Amino acid sequence: MDGPANVTTAPRTVEEIFKDFRNRRTAIVRALTSDVEEFSNLCDPDKDNLCLYGLSNGTWEVTLPAEEVPTELPEPALGINFARDGMNRKDWLSLVAVHSDSWLLSVAFYYAARLNRNDRKRLFGMINDLPTVYEVVSGGPRQTKDRSSVDSGSKSKITKQSSDGQLENMSRGAGHEGYGEDDGEHSETICGYCNGIYNADEFWICCDVCERWYHGKCVKITPAKADSIKQYKCPSCSSSKKPRQ
């Protein structure tokens, strides 16, 4: 077996390790969302113990675990296929997602073992800015980012393309003062509706309640309509506020 976790050159810097983490995470998210039918079919309970690997090249694979002992990298959860038919599908996918989050962190910090304390802290901060696989798959609440340097007042964050083609990050408030977040921070943002990855050419809007980002087209909000919104609530947060019948 060629070992799904093998890499040609181990990442060493914070940026390299984060890129490796991001690629593996993106692959697993794809397996559990857009590629879920293919993933489910591969998890045949009649087969031996299978693992879900997110690879550093951005692809995913369901296969047997590495045979060498000790393994080159930490291994993901073993036997994910056995529970496929014995659980509610959503619960099964959420369970795989939780184990995948644990595995992704273990791989990242296996590489980060030789980093100093400040670099490890910076790496974790970069990782923590992304929603977990579980949050994406289950639709659970996303951990909000620390905006200590930003006005703590409630404002709708709107990302849109300006007339000169430049991306503007605006807050709903006096003067439309910007948050000062560059495109790099948003480049790993995932749409809370379709799980699509951020694209600077598209209009996005952020929910003031859960702070998830959405394609404007997914939640039927246009730039013109957004200009008239004082506080935006996504469909999930709007429905959760409705009184029970």
Automatic annotation (TrEMBL):
The keyword Transcription applies. Residues 138-184 are annotated as: Disordered. Residues 188-240 form the PHD-type domain. Keywords: Chromatin regulator, Metal-binding, Nucleus, Transcription, Transcription regulation, Zinc, Zinc-finger. GO terms for cellular component: nucleus. It is found in: Nucleus. Its main location: nucleus. It comes from the Eukaryota. CDD domains: PHD_AL_plant. Gene3D superfamilies: Zinc/RING finger domain, C3HC4 (zinc finger) (3.30.40.10). One of its GO terms (molecular function) is transcription cis-regulatory region binding. Interacts with H3K4me3 and to a lesser extent with H3K4me2. The PHD-type zinc finger mediates the binding to H3K4me3. Belongs to the Alfin family. Histone-binding component that specifically recognizes H3 tails trimethylated on 'Lys-4' (H3K4me3), which mark transcription start sites of virtually all active genes. This is PHD finger protein ALFIN-LIKE.
